Amino acid sequence: ELSRLLEAGYAPLESGFRRLDSGVMMVAALHRLHGVKGRMVDWWLDRHFSPEEFHRWHPGDHVSWSWDARRGAAIVEHRVEGGIQRLKIQRRDAAAYFDPEHLAEAAVSAAICSRGGPAEGDGWTSHVVHVCRDTDDGCEMRSRFFLGDFDPPLPPPGPAQAKVGSAAAARAILQHTLEEYAHLARFLPEVYARRASC
Predict the structure, then answer these.
(1) N or C: fewer beta carbons within 10 Å in the chain?
(2) Is the separation of the CB atoms in 143 and 129 below 8 Å?
(3) How confident is the model at residue 185 (pLDDT cuts 50, 70, 90)?
(4) CA distances from 190 to 39, 44, 103, 195, 198 (A)
(5) How far is the C-alpha of 75 from the C-alpha of 193, rounded, in Å?
(6) DSSP three-state, residue 74
(7) Contact yes or no for 33/145 (Cβ under 8 A)
(8) Cβ atoms < 10 Å from Cβ of 92
(9) Which residue, among 172, 126, 181, 171, has the nearest Cα to 18 in the 3D structure?
(10) CA–CA gap between residue 175 and residue 1 (Å, rounded)
(11) 4-45, pLDDT tens digit by residue?
(12) What is the DSSP secondary structure assignment for residue 106, as one 8-state letter?
């Protein structure tokens, strides 16, 4: 599934979700970001936003953002189905996800990879990968969320895996990511132009 993100054209599923043979739930989202280039998304996701800008990124769902230097991870709070979910997100080297030679040859402007999991504890439950291809008027960003890939592993199938990788969780993530990047495209070019060269 990941190697397809580096290929020209589109995969059979670009917006939606399905369970992979491994049992992991994959959520796919295609964003068309007018006026936004891949380098801007890469810059933004490298923690170049304030707590206030995090809220602006999705005014309805984003509650708070902070940086945990000890773990090298962002701690975020989202509104999910009427409650608050606390997560940690840690950026990872794209070379751990893609063949470096294939990545270097691909016509992509950014490949942003991370692991996610509950803010409490040291374990991880998911992967998030965004790959951008620049266009004449901005970029296309293809996102993939892989839910229920536990590190350290859990004995499958378990209730935690079922909840993390459920259809309800996948549907909520799909709606959230489509909304947040639509919001971001409205103000990222101005923020990038003002601050990226500082």
Answers:
(1) C
(2) yes
(3) very high
(4) 14, 12, 29, 9, 14
(5) 26
(6) strand
(7) no
(8) 15
(9) 171
(10) 21
(11) 999 989 999 999 999 999 899 999 999 999 999 999 999 999
(12) S
